Amino acid sequence: DREVVMVAVCQSGDALQFVAESLRADHEVALAAVRRKGTSLRWAPPALKGRRDVALAAVGQNGLALQFCSRALRKDREVVFAAVSRHGAALRFACKRLRADPEIAEVAGLS
């Protein structure tokens, strides 16, 4: 039941791992989970790992969630910037070009 799942993921984002695939692929369910615990993005299906809004919510809660974002989003400057703003060590999950970006490196605390 979707209502029960929403309550569960709002209490613990990692509850997403135990949710039926059909509900795990539900945008609102995944968004609620990553808002509670960014790294619960690991349990989301690939299509949602590639959604910018889901990624921004995840890295906004925990920058290290960048490691679970799609490759395309690990190349997205705004997503990477948001991630390293929360957790400088998230820089290691960004693409090479953004790891070399002086502004991003500064925000990550590497300059």
Gross morphology: elongated
The count of strands amounts to 0
Q: Averaged pLDDT, please?
A: 96
Percent of residues in β-strands: under 5%
State the helicity in percent bands. 40-55%
Largest sheet: none
The succession of helices and strands, N to C, reads HHHHHHHH
Poorly predicted parts? none
Q: What value does the Rg take, in angstroms?
A: 14 Å
The gist of it:
With 111 residues, the protein is mainly alpha-helical.
What does this structure look like?
By secondary structure, this protein is mainly alpha-helical. The protein has eight helices and no strands. Helix 3 runs parallel beside helix 5 and helix 5 runs parallel beside helix 6. The longest helix has 10 residues, at 2-11. The protein is elongated. The termini are far apart.
How are the SSEs ordered, and which strands pair?
Layout: H1 2-11, H2 21-24, H3 27-36, H4 46-49, H5 52-61, H6 77-86, H7 96-99, H8 102-107
Helix pairs in contact: 1-3, 3-5, 5-6
Features:
about 0% strand; about 50% helix; elongated; mainly alpha; about 110 residues
